[in-house]
């Protein structure tokens, strides 16, 4: 495992989390494009949990954690939160062909995540939502 970060679910802390992720990924030679993808994914997931996750335990705020490891040419990211149970993989894809005025609000961030990741899998364990994402390391990347 390269890194494991745990932070309170506050929007201000998401920036801190991403700065820490950036530093560790850079130190391990992960290229700019993949670092950008990881930061975008973490920011989107974290902001969704904070804004819409409703904490079922009654705790004053969520706990967010990110675990990242590398296996051959794959970067594996586990995003964990204490928000209400929510399976983003069960969400329908947005209708990108529909007129913008006719589209449902939301869902574009999850669509983006699905397109950036090689795989996205959800599970619920106790009080945690766990989202496992696999991203392919880019062959031509340099830090």
Write a brief caption for the model.
This protein is α+β, with helices and mostly antiparallel strands and 143 residues long. The chain contains three helices and five strands. The mean pLDDT is 83.
Task: Please name the fourth-level CATH homologous superfamily.
Answer: Histidine kinase-like ATPase, C-terminal domain
**Overall mean confidence score, pLDDT:** 83
Q: Name the structural class.
A: alpha+beta
How do the strands line up in the largest sheet?
1-2-3-5-4
Number of strands: 5
Domain count, please report it: 1
CATH architectural grouping: 2-Layer Sandwich
Question: What is the CATH domain class?
Answer: Alpha Beta
Question: What is the name of the CATH topology?
Answer: Heat Shock Protein 90
pLDDT under 50 segments (min length 5)? none
The shape is globular
Q: For the record, give the distance between the C-alpha atoms at the N and C termini, rounded to a whole number.
A: 19 Å
The count of helical stretches stands at 3
Task: Return Rg in Å.
Answer: 15 Å
Task: Explain how this protein is built.
It is a single chain. The protein has 143 residues and is of the alpha+beta class. The protein has a single domain, classed as Histidine kinase-like ATPase, C-terminal domain (Heat Shock Protein 90, 2-Layer Sandwich), CATH 3.30.565. 33% of the residues lie in helices and 29% in strands. It contains three helices and five strands, in the order βααββαββ. It has a five-stranded antiparallel β-sheet, with helices on one face. Strand 2 and strand 3 (74-81) form a beta hairpin. Helix 2 (32-52) packs antiparallel against helix 3 (108-116). It is globular.
């Amino acid at each position: 495992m390269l890194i494991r970060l745990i932070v309170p679910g506050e929007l201000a802390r998401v920036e801190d989390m991403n700065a820490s992720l950036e530093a560790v990924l850079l130190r391990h030679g992960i290229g700019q494009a993949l670092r950008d993808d990881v930061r975008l994914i973490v920011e989107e997931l974290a902001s969704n949990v904070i804004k819409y996750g409703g904490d079922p335990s009654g705790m004053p705020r969520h706990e967010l954690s990110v675990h990242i490891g590398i296996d051959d040419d794959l970067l594996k990211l586990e995003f964990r939160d204490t928000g209400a149970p929510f399976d983003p993989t069960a969400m329908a894809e947005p209708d990108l062909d529909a007129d913008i005025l006719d589209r449902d609000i939301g869902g574009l961030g999850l669509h983006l995540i699905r397109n950036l990741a090689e795989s996205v899998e959800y599970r619920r364990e106790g009080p945690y939502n766990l989202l496992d994402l696999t991203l392919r390391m880019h062959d031509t990347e340099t830090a």
